[in-house]
Amino acid sequence: MSATQLGLVAVGLLVVIGILLLIYSLLIRQRTAPEDEVPESLNALKDARIDPGEKVASPMSEEIESLVQAELKSHPDLAGTQIDFATDPDDTLSISINGVAYQEVDDIPDERIRAAVHKAVATFNKSA
């Protein structure tokens, strides 16, 4: 076999190996992609911080909580009210006001806080 023929065989062999590696990498990527991919909605949360004492809640609940807190600032006597939306172990929403948890908005004793929650939900729904 001449040097030219050996060179052609070597190039052909490299091409075949390259094609096999490409097919292998596509098969591996196809098998692992769904589990490895992180939904964009979770990517937005990777740098999120939780304030000390803050209970974990869904991003939607946290956004509504922020709207409620902004609304409460318009009432000087409620500006210092601690409000925290949380997801309970049974996946229900709990609204904690100054450490007292309420499962229903209508159970909140202060009408202005109830109104702030209703207004925040309406604002959130309009933006969604």
Report on this structure.
The protein is mainly alpha-helical and 128 residues long. The protein folds into two domains: 3-37; 59-127. The chain contains four helices and three strands. The protein has a three-stranded antiparallel sheet, covered by helices on one side. Strand 2 and strand 3 form a beta hairpin. Helix 3 (59-72) crosses helix 4. The longest helix is centred in the first third of the chain and has 34 residues, at 3-36. The protein is rod-shaped and about 95 Å long.
Strand runs, count: 3
Helix fraction by DSSP (H/I, runs of at least 4): 40-55%
Total number of domains: 2
Average of per-residue pLDDT values: 78
Shape: rod-shaped
Evaluate the radius of gyration: 29 Å
Could you spell the SSE succession in H and E letters? HHHEEEH
CA-to-CA gap between the ends? Answer: 72 Å
Based on secondary structure, the structural category is mainly alpha
Major β-sheet strand ordering: 1-2-3
* Largest beta-sheet details: 3 strands, antiparallel
Q: Which stretches of 5+ consecutive residues score pLDDT under 50?
A: none
Percent in strands? 5-15%
Count of DSSP H/I helices: 4
